[in-house]
Amino acid sequence: MAGVPSGVALITGGSSGVGLAAARAFARRGRPTVLVARRSGPLEAAAAELRTHAPCTPVALDLAADDGTVEKELTRLAEEFGPVEVLVNCAGHGMYVPFLELDPAEARRLFQVHWFSPAAAVRAVLPGMLARGRGHVVNVASVSAKSGPWGHSAYAAAKAALTTLTESLAAEYGGRGVHFGVVHPGLVDTPFFGAPDLAPLRARTARRMIRPERVGLAVADLVERPRAEVCVPRHYRVLDVLRAVSPGALGRLVARQSAPGRAAARGRRP
Ligand SMILES: NC(=O)c1ccc[n+]([C@@H]2O[C@H](COP(=O)([O-])OP(=O)(O)OC[C@H]3O[C@@H](n4cnc5c(N)ncnc54)[C@H](OP(=O)(O)O)[C@@H]3O)[C@@H](O)[C@H]2O)c1
Description:
Largest sheet: 7 strands, parallel
Strand order of the largest sheet: 3-2-1-4-5-6-7
Protein name: SDR family NAD(P)-dependent oxidoreductase
Domain Ketoreductase: 7-191
Shape: globular
Number of strands: 7
Strand content: 5-15%
Family: Belongs to the short-chain dehydrogenases/reductases (SDR) family.
Bound molecules: NADP nicotinamide-adenine-dinucleotide phosphate
Order of helices and strands: EHEHEHEHEHEHHEHHH
Number of domains: 1
CATH architecture: 3-Layer(aba) Sandwich
CATH class: Alpha Beta
Structural class: alpha/beta
Keywords: Oxidoreductase
CATH superfamily: NAD(P)-binding Rossmann-like Domain
Oligomer: single chain
Number of helices: 10
InterPro entries: KR_dom, NAD(P)-bd_dom_sf, Sc_DH/Rdtase_CS, SDR_fam
């Protein structure tokens, strides 16, 4: 990214946590941003802060909607505020529920936010990026995509789907000036863990959490130095090695690390 960037960064989930940290990193480099999330209050607060560095447009939109409005609205945004040079698909929420207690409607909603809406966002901006011969799509997945932790049967599957979506996009459209990358954060200290079902996980893992700024910088860095995948912290890359060597050992390690207790590890709520 040489000089002051002109193309817009469209960041879903840009009002909080990792998305806001990424938005700050782009804005500080002078890049205009468009932030998408549901609640106007946090969106307006984030936009007011970012505007001290670069133009910022906050847009309230529920990415869980499955009636076609998401793609329509994101296409409109790209036309009105673009050209979009950077798309960061970061919006999302978590779930920490054993499989047999999972509400199928909640699981569908989760896939809507973590796969269908990111895919709709790509459909909204990719044709323009290809026509201009430049652009970056960064999808924020999770290290849980690599392992299938306790309580994450829908969440980890959705993040794995987002990861392979990124890979398929690179296979189909890579080499035409548009870069596709995925960021896998570990445990990040954000309002993500405010949901009641995630509170036990937060309590057990607080000491291992990293700051969202670290992930936000990794997102911005992926645009400056395009790569297929980044884990934050980097040591999570060992999960790939462990899977290749012994998927069973990886499963046991991740189950131990993620289950809230022995009873819960046998499939009951903490
Ligand atoms: N925190 C972690 O430990 C962690 C680890 C790995 C991966 N991640 C991933 O990182 C991403 C960001 O999470 P975070 O930790 O930064 O959480 P966060 O602070 O709770 O931020 C989530 C953002 O997504 C927006 N959002 C949530 N649901 C939405 C919807 N239906 N429509 C539109 N916007 C929506 C939220 O705004 P509104 O609520 O106003 O809509 C907020 O801006 C997520 O994809 C998450 O899965 C997080």
